[in-house]
Amino acid sequence: MRKFECACSLLLLACAVAGLYGMLHNQISYTVAPEYFTQFKFDQFGIPASLRNRLGASIVGWRAAWWMGLLIGMVLVPFGLLIPGWQQYLRTMLQTFFVVALTTLTVGLGALAYAYATFTPANIGPYSARITQPLAFARAGHMHNFSYIGGLIGIVVGVVFVLVQRWRIGRRAAPPMPLIQ
Questions:
Q1: pLDDT of residue 142 exceeding 90
Q2: In-domain check, residue 181
């Protein structure tokens, strides 16, 4: 029964981790391009005028990302049940969530670095006249798009992580093979 209780709590935790990740992620992208929020995301998420700042970017991040935690958790939390014992299961899943978040961050920052290295005013296409810094806007958008892809890649990395942990636990539990029979 403890594993089931852990699984339910872990699903909620996955949503919280993803929401907090979205808040942090948006602080990075707000630094890159405040206009990405003032001219796009704040309207998209109905953020009131009094919150159209970094706090509003955090709210957008939470709203845009918590559901990704549900998706990630719905895959990884049941998959993690391969881990024996509720304490080891809990420890492994907390580590897995960290690995997924780190993978997502790496993909998002990699996309941002790619955008800085390759995007130019000539190759980003036309933007609305109300966007005063289209290059920064394009870079932030690229980071956002690839961060969702990073979350999906994170699911695969998380599955592999759980399998490796299960294999390690199995090796520790197996009696040693005699050298000479």
A1: yes
A2: no
The answer to whether residue 176 is domain-embedded is: no
Residue 180 located in a structural domain: no
Residue with tokens 């907390």: 94
Instruction: Print the domain residue range for 148.
Output: 2-171
Q: Which residue has the tokens 């003032």?
A: 38
Q: Please determine, for residue 171, whether its predicted confidence score (pLDDT) is greater than 90.
A: no
Tens of pLDDT, residue by residue over 103-127, are 999 999 999 999 999 999 999 988 8
Looking at the 3D structure of the chain, how many domains does it have?
Answer: 1
Q: State how far the alpha carbon of 116 is from the alpha carbons of 15, 31, 59, 123, 142, in Å.
A: 30, 14, 26, 12, 10
Residue 120 contacts residue 66 (beta carbons within 8 Å): no
Note the Cα 99 to chain centre separation in Å. Answer: 9
Whether this model's pTM surpasses 0.85: yes
Q: Report the C-alpha gap between 157 and 102 in whole angstroms.
A: 10
Residue 22 within any structural domain of the chain: yes
